[in-house]
Amino acid sequence: MSFAIVLAALLPVVPQPTEWKPSEGTCPLAEASVVTTKVDDARYGEEGYAMTISPGRIEVKAKTDLGLLWARQTLAQLKAAGAQAPCGEIFDKPKYRVRGFVMDVGRMFHSMDFLRDLARTMSYYKMNTLHVHLNDNEICKDPKTDWSVKQAAFRLESATYPELTAKDGSYTKKEFRAFMLQCRELGVTVIPEFDSPAHALAFTRVKPEFASTKYGADHFDLDKRDEILAWLKPLFAEYLTGDEPTFIGPYMHVGTDEYNPADAEKFRDFSDKLFKMVRGFGYKVCAWGALSHAKGTTPVLADRDITMDIWYNPYYQPAEALEAGYTIVSVPDGLTYLVPYAGYYYDYLNYRGLYENWEPRKVGKYTVPDDKMDQLAGGKFALWNDALGKKKDGTPYTEADNWDRIYPGLQTLGQKFWTGAKEGEDWAAFSRIANALSEPAGVKNARTFRFK
Questions:
Q1: Looking at beta carbons, which pairs linking 442-448 to residues 24 or more positions away fall under 8 Å?
Q2: Where are the alpha helices (DSSP H) in 303-343?
């Protein structure tokens, strides 16, 4: 089968398929028979599919169930766009295997209904990785601040340390496991995150003897790192072990960002032991890249099964992370960080700029070379609730406010993560298609934002 990219003939779907060859005629979707076939063909990879649309008949081929799922989402969007679909042939396969979003529920609780809506919508736009940031605290730069009055939360039910569970909103272990299983059916992998040794106020509020007196109570005192790790291990085990573990895998994110570099060697030792602990439970480790910031000689476990999120290159230069042997994910803060109502980063992303000028291989000012692309898993964008759910005037912002910011990111970056940069991209055409699409069936949240 031979395919051609026809830039002038866009389909009413997001992301646009990798290749699309239109032909004469239209297909009445309500009357069309849909025939799906699984084929042993390596060109489809784990997520690719082909679709032939002809009058009265739609044929879909894929190697895997996941490929067939993405084909169904394309078909759902075609049906949402109208009663007829143009005839032609699609071949569709993602450029990047990680197409993700980071949701900070540590600083602002979001309901499980919100997370379910988010997962359904991510699947609709072929976004496949939901990174849930489960603990965090209010940002305070003065280590001598009165930390007892500052916001901090750990958002999961805990039998190991019941006092750790946030009082202003949390998820039961049963519902979080069920959520992860539901996401798996949607083609979305959930990566849960426990962040430390900075961003650790929720932990030190329960164990004040572990709080740093040098850097503030939101930092662990890494002179006590072996005691801290011994305390953390049963907490991790609560969610990572058992016949029906809360976290169904395969990934666990351990944070490790923004610790003071004056204690770089202690930080590196803590990170190494934390990585090994999580791996010992049988999970693949993800972390925020910080080993250029924490430069030193203490070795830290490194291989392709450990993923470094590169968010700010001075914290971990992507070239150094690649040379060390890590897999990396591109999350450049200067492009992909939503921080509602905070007055820094982005209140709404520069969606047009991202569409026209960016894809994950551009990690800040560094471009991943061709011979290292196999170590670049993909990209994510993030929403951080640094403002703790409050606008500048003190009035609350809501889940709906955050939804309005996330939704256009799922569309725009869903496109960039699926196809990367392509010649002849037309923002006006893409934005018209994206604006016409509404949330998928069953999603309660509704956006008001429209691309211009």
A1: 442/120, 443/117, 443/120, 443/121, 444/113, 444/117, 445/114, 445/117, 445/399, 445/400, 445/403, 445/407, 446/403, 447/403, 447/404, 447/407, 447/408, 448/404
A2: 318-324, 333-336
CA distance 285 to 105: 20
**Is the pLDDT reported for residue 7 higher than 70?**
no
Structure token pair of residue 222:
């890494």
Name all domains of the chain by residue range, CATH numbers in brackets. Answer: 19-92 (3.30.379.10), 98-419 (3.20.20.80)
Contacts of 48 (CB under 8 A, 6+ apart): 62, 63, 67, 91, 92, 93, 94
Length of the chain: 452
pLDDT of 178 higher than 90? yes
- For 267, residues 6+ apart whose C-beta sits below 8 A from its C-beta are 197, 222, 256, 259, 261, 290, 294
Nearest to 246 by CA among 164, 181, 305: 181
Find the helix or strand (DSSP H, E) in which 434 lies.
Answer: helix 427-436
- Whole-angstrom Cα distance, residue 290 to residue 264? 10
Q: Residue 117: is it exposed, middle or buried by C-beta count within 10 angstroms (0-12/13-18/19+)?
A: buried
Within a 10 A sphere around the Cβ of 43, how many other Cβ atoms?
A: 11
Interstrand relation of 216-220 and 211-212 (parallel, antiparallel or unpaired): antiparallel
The verdict on pTM exceeding 0.85 is yes
Task: Identify the residue whose tokens are 């866009």.
Answer: 10
Average of pLDDT values for 254-262?
97
pLDDT band at 10 (very low <50, low <70, confident <90, very high): confident
CB 100 within 8 A of CB 330: no
Cβ distance 21 to 43 under 8 Å? no
Per-residue confidence band for 71, with pLDDT thresholds at 50, 70 and 90 = very high
Distance CA 316, CA 293 (A): 6
Q: How confident is the model at residue 424 (pLDDT cuts 50, 70, 90)?
A: confident
